[in-house]
Amino acid sequence: MLAEELTALGADSVRVEDAGCAFRGDFDLVYAANLHSRIASRILWQVAHFPYAKEQDIYDAARALPWPQWFDLARTIKVELNAQRCPLKSLDFITLRIKDAVCDKFRDVKGARPSVATQHPDVRIHAFLDATHCWLYLDTSGEPLFKRGARDHVGVAPLKKNLAAGILRLTGWQPDTPLLDPMCGSGTFLVEAAELALKRAPGRARPFGFEKLARFDAGRWEALRATAAGHELPAGEREIFGADLFGDALKDARANLLAMGLADCVKLKQANILELPAPADRGVMVTNPPYGVRIGEQDALREMYPKLGDALKQKYAGWNCYFFTADTALAKGMRLSPSRKTPLFNGKLECRLYEYRIVAGSNRKAESKTPG
């Protein structure tokens, strides 16, 4: 999904990797990817890749880089490191050595060292180590991209917005199709869907890390933002529907939609999913139901799942329904055959996105029968 998104933004040599996508482009693509990507968590600019055998190799390679050309001495910095199969003893020590290398380079060139900030640094430097090689990056995003710029009213276990956006993309939903989240909680799916329908750039209202880098061109950035704003559609009624059993959850959803200027785009209703009629003859349902890991009510959920399967068959023929959950008992309990199961992670929690294409009558696989 992310590779498709980046390609549409004009990225070259897009390559899907284990933890994301690698791609190439001019520096304007840094602005565009941060402004428009709904799925990425961060856009990292690779500045070095080299082999290593010991800590000193990493320090020497990092110190050789032209850090003062990339950001000013007055900027505060923070180094973050991740590793897989790294044979060295202490990742904390390696992190410290990379920080020292950056500061020592500044002292060589500028006669002074930049300050370190563990909270809200101006410049974030990311390092990744495998068993034999090190990669160094400058973070062009700053805060993670799922932080869209508005403070959310969140529920018990809210989805990150980039995860919700990726799930919406996996469903194939288009803004001219009715959308329903019948267990909407604080409304993350609804907000993402409404913003997609209005063609709003997700990063339009927040700052970015690239604004602190030396090559930042404020004029080109403002022109890109203005172009994106010119493509936005006016807020108004859309066929986007949300419901929840609990009034407090709906208050959070309503507050989030209001804060984003989307209240007119979404119809909210307090209702039990088992009793909620389909708001249209066809459409896409997508929801993140509660599961026992989160609220400790596994027995009640096991009792609900067969009723949920019956409700879908009775009320939602013609709909494609998607359930994102960590509870694998949902698929068995609903007594319907999912047409697709997509493994995803919500943080460290392994989940599944189950797809059900609801048809009139039974959605179970036909049983084989023997003549006579």
Structure description:
- The protein is an alpha/beta fold and about 375 residues long.
- The chain folds into two domains: about 1-140, VC0802-like (2-Layer Sandwich); about 160-200 and about 230-355, Rossmann fold (3-Layer(aba) Sandwich).
- The chain is built from twelve helices and 13 strands.
- The strands form three sheets. Strands 9-8-7-10-11-13-12 form a seven-stranded mixed beta sheet, with helices on one face. The chain has a four-stranded mixed beta sheet with strand order 3-6-5-4, with helices on one face. The chain has a two-stranded antiparallel sheet with strand order 1-2.
- A hairpin with a 2-residue loop joins strand 1 and strand 2 (about 20-25).
- Helix 2 crosses helix 8 (about 220-230), helix 3 runs parallel beside helix 5 and helix 6 (about 160-170) crosses helix 7 (about 190-195).
Quick structural overview:
This protein is an alpha/beta fold. The protein is built from twelve helices and 13 strands.
Shape field: elongated
CATH fold group of the largest domain: Rossmann fold
Order of helices and strands: HEEHEHHEHEEHEHHEHEEHHEHEE
Biggest sheet descriptor:
7 strands, mixed
Q: How large, in whole angstroms, is the Cα Rg?
A: 24 Å
Determine the number of helices (DSSP H or I, runs of at least 4 residues): 12
Write the CATH homologous superfamily of the largest domain: Vaccinia Virus protein VP39
Name of the CATH first level of the largest domain: Alpha Beta
Taking the alpha carbons of the first and last residues, their distance comes to 50 Å
Uncertain regions: pLDDT < 50 for 5+ in a row?
362-372
Structural class: alpha/beta
CATH architecture label name of the largest domain: 3-Layer(aba) Sandwich
Number of domains: 2
pLDDT averaged residue by residue: 92
Order of strands across the main sheet: 9-8-7-10-11-13-12
